[in-house]
Design goal:
- It comes from Pseudomonas antarctica.
- The chain is built from 7 helices and 6 strands; from the N terminus they run H-H-E-E-H-E-E-H-H-E-E-H-H.
- By secondary structure, it is an alpha+beta fold.
- The chain has one domain.
- Strands 1-2 form a two-stranded antiparallel ribbon.
């Protein structure tokens, strides 16, 4: 995860709430929903709030951090909405109505998850373990093989020098890793971060420690 700093709600939502002061999320039209999603994607620099893979307007959905069923007074609260990828059985599609004790709105989301070169993620606190399980973020290969493998492949591609079939991998030197970490923290000209960049930064910091 990467800490998300929520900004101002989109104008379309403000205008809708002014007309519907007691309105709930299911009453929103596609105009307001798309405006919310676009605003979330922009402030998340193009990354899913949970797995940090790349998302776009047509490959994401609006995800309520506190589930709508449990926080009905926050269904149109922009500070409670993030953009999630649409992958089946993970992230927002796995969350449903379950409680998330650790979220991307908390600073600790960047320190209480540990990513391994294999692609596995480990929770370093009870709440991190719970959130990983609820969102199915791949604490074992069996639970989410696709996400597990995606992380492993991008880690291999960016952090190692591969020879021939990928055996005998050599970790880049510390200076190069430091430069790479700085680059991964900077959005590109389109204000997008590289897919899984928070995962890569997490791994780099472990290697460099």
């Amino acid at each position: 995860m990467r800490k998300i700093t929520k900004g101002n709600e989109p104008v379309a939502l403000t205008q809708w709430r002014r007309v519907h002061p007691r309105g709930r999320y299911p009453e929103l039209s596609h105009i307001e929903r798309n405006a919310i999603r676009q605003a979330c994607i922009e402030e998340q620099y193009g990354l899913c709030a949970h797995c940090c893979n790349a998302i776009a307007l047509n490959s994401a959905h609006n995800e309520h951090v506190e589930a709508q069923r449990d926080a009905q007074n926050r269904t149109v609260d922009f500070s409670n909405i993030v953009a999630s990828c649409n992958r089946p059985q993970q992230c927002g599609n796995a969350h449903a109505h379950q409680a998330l004790p650790l979220t991307a709105l908390m600073d600790e989301c960047e320190t209480e998850l540990k990513f391994y070169l294999s692609g596995r993620v480990e929770g370093l606190s009870p709440r991190a373990i719970t959130s990983i399980q609820v969102l199915n973020l791949g604490d074992s290969r069996e639970k989410n093989r696709a996400l597990f493998n995606d992380r492993r492949d991008i880690i291999n591609a960016l952090l190692f020098n591969s020879r021939m079939d990928g055996s005998d991998l050599t970790i880049e030197n510390i200076d190069l890793l430091t430069i790479l970490e700085e680059e991964l923290q900077q959005p590109d000209e389109n204000r997008q971060l590289k897919p899984f960049s928070p995962v890569l930064i997490n791994v780099i910091r472990q290697i460099s420690a």
